[in-house]
């Protein structure tokens, strides 16, 4: 499993783009994780699924609400990563009014989740292999803080916890 001090693994995430521009076409666009985090400070939070109860009611909304505080603390971007396709992540981001605050990144084949070891097997519940619930701070591609819920719960990966770590 990925640890503080490790570089993010090679992986591709997908984001549904609403408006063409900056080299991105309308619809799903692929992004190389290592290239996208190079030279940036990125807060990443992972969760099991779009439109699921805790993820929709608490986890993602906390980061959206705190987006300005993260930016003020030196974070360039906030990413929500989940094992869903880019169309679902785009629709979920629209519903949560996340535009300009949080990028909703799809890990449709669980490539990033597997590469980081932050995986949650929900096969018994009919959901298959998912992203575990976590938050991390990444500076120039290197993990500087990691809060892993270790298979469930919602106690350490919230926006307030990561923001406190960044500030201090």
Q: What Rg is obtained from the alpha carbons, in whole angstroms?
A: 14 Å
CATH topology: Glutaredoxin
Strands across the major sheet, in which order?
A: 2-1-5-4-3-8-9
Q: How much strand content do the residues show?
A: 25-35%
Structural class of the helices, strands and pairings? alpha+beta
Q: Give the termini distance in whole angstroms.
A: 25 Å
CATH homologous superfamily descriptor: Glutaredoxin
Report mean pLDDT, rounded to a whole number: 94
What's the structural domain tally? 1
User: Quick one: CATH class?
Assistant: Alpha Beta
Largest beta sheet, briefly?
Answer: 7 strands, mixed
CATH architectural name: 3-Layer(aba) Sandwich
Distinct helical segment count:
6
- Low-pLDDT runs of 5+ residues are none
Shape: globular
According to DSSP, the number of beta strands is 9
Along the chain, the helix and strand elements come as EEHEHHEHEHEEEEH
Helix proportion: 25-40%
Give the structure's gist in a few sentences:
By secondary structure, the protein is α+β, with helices and mostly antiparallel strands. Helix content is 29%, strand content 29%. The strands form two sheets. A seven-stranded mixed β-sheet has the order 2-1-5-4-3-8-9. It has a two-stranded antiparallel sheet with strand order 6-7.
